[in-house]
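anyone seen this seq b4? input:
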Amino acid sequence: MKFSQKYLRRAFVGLIALGSLIGFSFSRPAERLFDIAKNLDLYASVFKELNKFYVDDVNPNLAVKTSIDALLKSFDPYTVYYPEDELEDFMTMTTGKYQGIGIVLAEINDEYRVAYVDENSPASKAGLGIGDQLISVNGIKISDTPEAEPSKLLKGQAGTSLDISILKNDESAPKTIHLKRETVQINNVIYSGIIRPGVGYISLEEFNASATKELKSALSTLKQAGMQKLILDLRENPGGLLTQAVDICNLFLAKETKIVETRGKVEEWNKTYTALNSSFDSEIPLIILINGHSASAAEIVAGVMQDYDRAVLIGKKSYGKGLVQVTRDLPYRTKMKITTAKYYIPSGRCIQAIDYQHKNSDGQAIAYKDSSIKSFKTQNGRTVVDGGGILPDILIGKDLMSSSFTQALMKQHMIFLYACHYQKNHPKIASSESFVFSENDMNDFQNWLKNQKFIYESPVEKQVRMAIDLAKKDQAYASLEASMSALKSEWSSSTTKELLAHKQEIISLIEQEIILHYYLQKGVNQWSFSKDPVILESLNLFNQPQKFQEILAKKNK
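predicted toks r here
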């Protein structure tokens, strides 16, 4: 019989909660140290008793990992424990390298499909495409081993061989492909090019160990191609290494410029980071794009450039992660990433949005109140605020998944699966820049969707259903039944109605997904240059140099 993870989690969480109530209520160091020792002894005693007397065998690795995860979850989502078998994932995040074939898998309807292919990777060279289904790896059939993680089966030492069985998106029978694993570098710069005469564009997706090197190389290439102005796209960038954020700021700021300061409980770890090198270009007109998924290191770069009035920020308010983590080595080849400080950019502001020290009644961390937000000044005297992320100088951009219906389509993978269906019936499409999802295509999508297991209930429809369910408990419901049923009928959602109401945003999402299937990420970027309202606004601003300068020089009152 399998050990009950649910039972053990409750036991350990209860122990941790008891420790927080009893053990950490004293302030004197001697009492605190005693309390820590006492609670660790209690923890060990509980585990020994469980191991000795619990009805099923106790898995020590699983049990301790569960308790550690529960403990760290009570602090913040960025303080994380990495057991030995997860160190490869940790190293991938920091170095941007792993040994494998260069694909990302997604589990969709109990199948594993290729959701992304790295260009020039072994998978790309072997002809794997987005939408292809993984059937087996080295004879291990995925459907027969649900406990196995296919992504781990694909990884291994560079130079080693593997055979995978793939059902290609446009074929009816699986075929076996022989590949050799390589060291795959996850690129930080996913696109760079001249998108208008004199205007360069760089999309920076990550901040791993090679981010500055890649960005500097892209800048050099674009300079040689005639770049005189730059759009740096940090949208959807979750951040990464603090040192890379500092070095990237240094590319646009003079040597010895103060960039960021970290402050935490361990004072000797507090540090002020300055630009150590001469800038690459401290004068080029710069626009930085951000949105709600720009976080951490991406926010440092955007915020520092705003504080020095070095760039105009366009897009949506950033995520608001102002916390710094360091990695600590633990016994038995394990590691822990722990939040040790907050970072403060040159104006003096910290943009952390969530207060993890205070929780609501449900145990969820809460956002800082508006009353606690303070105002600061940029170098030119513009007013900026802390708490809740970086606010762009020009707010623009609507989420493509703004409606609940569109969110449901994405969550249930309907856009992805339709792109697979579309690719089967269209061996070739127009170039990424000129591809258009037509009215006939939209009708085809609507007909295709009718045959899928797609479920949608609008927020209003859900509220009406809940009201009816509540009314049924009342004795007077019989007299209300007719009117309540009419109300339900009036608010019932229909796929046809929702598709019509959100047609443009759905078309935009389908176009992007189809282009991704045919032309990968590079194609999506090329498509966006004539469709993305944030990029179009940036290009328009570059055509108005006086307005550009006025934004940076404006002193808000």
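The longest strand covers residues 334-344. The domain at 189-325+340-397 is CATH 3.90.226.10 (2-enoyl-CoA Hydratase; Chain A, domain 1). kinda curious what u guys think
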